[in-house]
Amino acid sequence: MNWKKFFIAFVAAFGFIFLFGFIWYGTLMAGAHHEVPTLLRTETEFRSHFGWLILGHVVMAFFFTMLCARFVPTGGAGASAALGILVGLVYAGAHLISFAVQPLTIKILCGWIAGGVIQFAIAGTIIGAIFSTTTGGTGIGPVPVGPGPSGGG
User: Fold this and answer.
1) pLDDT tens-digit readout, 1-25
2) What is the pLDDT, as a whole number, of residue 120?
């Protein structure tokens, strides 16, 4: 694995995921979140737990970058975006479970699902683009050389 590219992709993914989360969940969905104030921390409590928020974004960015690096060995930005959509849909399952056990609104549920799919699709595109800049693939393993499926070189 190209660890330099991995680190760059991880930092870029973290930056994007954190910024997207601030804009989507913290700003665009703020009104929807205020509809259920008892489910969320107060602003003061939130600030005292901000380190946990950052850690969560680091964990998501690191392991999503690892997934792209490991399972999209020749795909580049498009295949990593597709993986991002699938990861976002995995999160949709967790959001549906949260909806079943917490008094969330449909607006919040739909916003969380849409946000997750969009967030990870774009993060996948960023990661895939970084890995594919010079290697013809994602830079994880060797680039295939030799005759292709048609027998040509």
Assistant:
1) 789 999 999 999 999 999 999 999 9
2) 99
In our burial notation (b when 16+ CB lie closer than 10 A, e otherwise), range 73-99 reads bbbbbebbbbbbeebbeebbeebeeeb
Torsion of the alpha carbons at 126, 53, 92 and 40, rounded to the nearest 10: -150
CB 19 within 8 A of CB 117: no
Tokens of 88: 């976002």
Q: Bin 139: left if φ > 0, else alpha if -120 < ψ < 50, else beta.
A: left
Residue 104: what are its φ and ψ, rounded to 5°? -80, 160
In whole angstroms, give the CA distance from residue 142 to residue 140.
7
Of 66, 26, 31, 63, nearest to 46 (Cα)? 26
Statement: the pTM of the whole predicted model exceeds 0.70: yes
* Residues 63 and 9: beta-carbon distance below 8 Å: no
Q: Is 116 exposed, middle or buried (0-12, 13-18, 19+ CB in 10 A)?
A: buried
